[in-house]
């Protein structure tokens, strides 16, 4: 340190200074623009989205992105797929989830597939409906078996009167039982247990007046008891039990073309069928009454079932007027009640489908008119060859069937009073003209039924051509 220090550039002190600066200062970084391409690719974040990767993702999720109506739905889908924020940035080059969702939403065209068709709540049970139609006609075999045992022309009045009363009472009782069925099976069973015997007794008592208390009263009592029991089984949906109860009648009628059973079997088989029907009815009621009762249930008013009973009376009179001229037409009409019930279900199912397919009230009205016309044609057209085969007047049979079916349709939607009043007017007019032999004579029934069918169809179109009753 005693010698002089050289201050000239390049001397030894310069080397010492360089060493000291290297020890005390960090090395300077190179600017970004000076980096080579490989370093830039590694250290710089991605500039813009990776279009190829986004397109591949869009193709993969196209079936789920297409139905989306907003990018937020796509964002929810990506979250559900477990798409993390780091993955979105590194693989697809988007800053966040919503950016990627918007890109996918824009790339995939909108597709709105139709939802799966819902199940038809009014799908009919075809076998059950056809069985019910057969069951309506099978009791006529009893009259076929017992025909040689009594004078039909002399004693038919008592049975007809008993049948009309039983038919009217059964319609009203069936409606009330269905109302109670909405509360519980036990409540419906109690209604049937109380009402069916009263109806049978009332029909027998009224039939005893024209029978003058003779032996025909017993036949009227048997007929009334059967109709009451059969009505109970039909309301409870026990059609197969009723068919089993009628099996003696079926067997007896089946052997008539080849064998004469004799007076004892001709009288005994219908009695056995009656006892079997009463037995299975009692069993069905016992099963229903074993169900626990519903507490706090309110009873419907009796007046609510009155129009159904009046309609039953009117329908019975119209069928009676037709049967006086063409007995076989009544059999055809009775059997057709099964397909008629099936078409009632189909009408309701088709109307619900039309409600989903139309967007304006006018279009629904037009479609409803087409459905009504289609169901009416499907019901009455098969009766045309049946009328020709039986020798019945096709006009009277077809118009009567159309009036009855349309009235039943209105009843199914709760419009019981209009159908009852219109059918009562038609029955009163046709019955009075036929009974008093007034003009136009035999043409009275088709004229009255045609007018009734036209009024009922117009009212049905006005009522059911609106969406509200079908909701």
Number of helices: 23
Strand percentage lies at under 5%
Radius of gyration: 42 Å
The major beta sheet can be summarized as: none
- Distance from N terminus to C terminus (CA atoms, Å) equals 112 Å
Low-confidence segments, ≥5 residues, pLDDT <50? 1-44
Overall pLDDT metric: 85
What would you call the structural class? Answer: mainly alpha
User: Using DSSP, what is the number of strands?
Assistant: 0
What does this structure look like?
By secondary structure, the protein is mainly alpha-helical. Helices cover 73% and strands 0% of the residues. The chain is built from 23 helices and no strands. The chain has helices at 12-24, 37-43, 51-60, 62-65, 71-80, 85-92, 97-107, 126-137, 140-146, 152-181, 185-211, 216-235, 239-245, 247-255, 262-289, 306-325, 327-335, 337-357, 361-380, 383-390, 394-412, 416-436, 444-464. The longest helix is centred in the middle third of the chain and has 30 residues, at 152-181. The chain is elongated.
List keywords for this structure.
single chain; 471 residues; mainly alpha; 23 helices; disordered N terminus
């Amino acid at each position: 340190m005693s010698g002089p220090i050289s201050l000239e550039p390049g001397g030894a002190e310069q080397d010492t200074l360089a060493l000291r600066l290297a020890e005390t200062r960090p090395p300077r970084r190179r600017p970004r623009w000076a980096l080579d391409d490989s370093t830039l690719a590694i250290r710089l974040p991605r500039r813009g989205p990776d279009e190829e990767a986004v397109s591949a993702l869009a193709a993969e999720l196209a079936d789920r992105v297409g139905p989306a109506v907003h990018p937020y739905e796509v964002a929810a889908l990506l979250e559900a797929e477990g798409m993390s924020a780091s993955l979105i940035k590194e693989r697809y080059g988007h800053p966040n989830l919503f950016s990627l969702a918007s890109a996918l939403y824009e790339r995939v065209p909108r597709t709105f597939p139709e939802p799966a068709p819902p199940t038809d709540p009014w799908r009919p049970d075809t076998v059950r409906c056809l069985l019910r139609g057969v069951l309506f006609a099978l009791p006529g075999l009893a009259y076929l078996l017992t025909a040689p045992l009594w004078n039909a022309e002399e004693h038919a009045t008592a049975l007809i009167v008993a049948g009309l009363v039983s038919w009217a009472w059964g319609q009203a009782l069936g409606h009330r039982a269905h109302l109670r069925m909405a509360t519980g099976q036990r409540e419906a069973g109690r209604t049937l247990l109380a009402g069916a015997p009263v109806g049978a007794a009332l029909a027998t008592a009224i039939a005893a007046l024209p029978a003058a208390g003779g032996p025909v009263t017993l036949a009227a009592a048997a007929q009334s008891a059967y109709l009451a029991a059969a009505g109970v089984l039909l309301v409870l949906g026990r059609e197969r039990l009723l068919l089993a109860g009628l099996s003696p009648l079926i067997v007896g009628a089946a052997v008539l073309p080849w064998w004469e059973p004799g007076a004892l079997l001709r009288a005994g088989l219908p009695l056995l069928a009656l006892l079997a029907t009463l037995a299975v009815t009692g069993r069905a009621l016992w099963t229903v009454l074993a169900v626990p009762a519903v507490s706090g249930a309110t009873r419907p008013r009796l007046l609510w079932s009155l129009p159904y009973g009046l309609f039953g009376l009117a329908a019975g009179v119209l069928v009676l007027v037709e049967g006086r001229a063409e007995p076989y037409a009544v059999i055809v009409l009775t059997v057709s009640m099964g397909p008629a019930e099936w078409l009632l279900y189909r009408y309701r199912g088709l109307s619900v489908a039309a409600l989903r397919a139309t967007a304006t009230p006018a279009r629904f009205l037009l479609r409803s008119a087409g459905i009504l016309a289609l169901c009416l044609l499907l019901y009455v057209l098969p009766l045309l060859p049946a009328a020709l085969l039986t020798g019945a007047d096709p006009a009277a049979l077809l118009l009567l069937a159309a009036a009855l079916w349309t009235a039943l349709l209105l009843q199914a939607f709760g419009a019981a009073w209009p159908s009852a009043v219109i059918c009562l007017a038609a029955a009163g007019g046709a019955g009075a003209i036929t009974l008093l032999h007034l003009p136009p004579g035999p043409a009275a029934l088709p004229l009255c039924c045609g007018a009734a069918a036209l009024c009922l169809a117009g009212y049905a179109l006005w009522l059911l051509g609106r969406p509200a009753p079908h909701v």
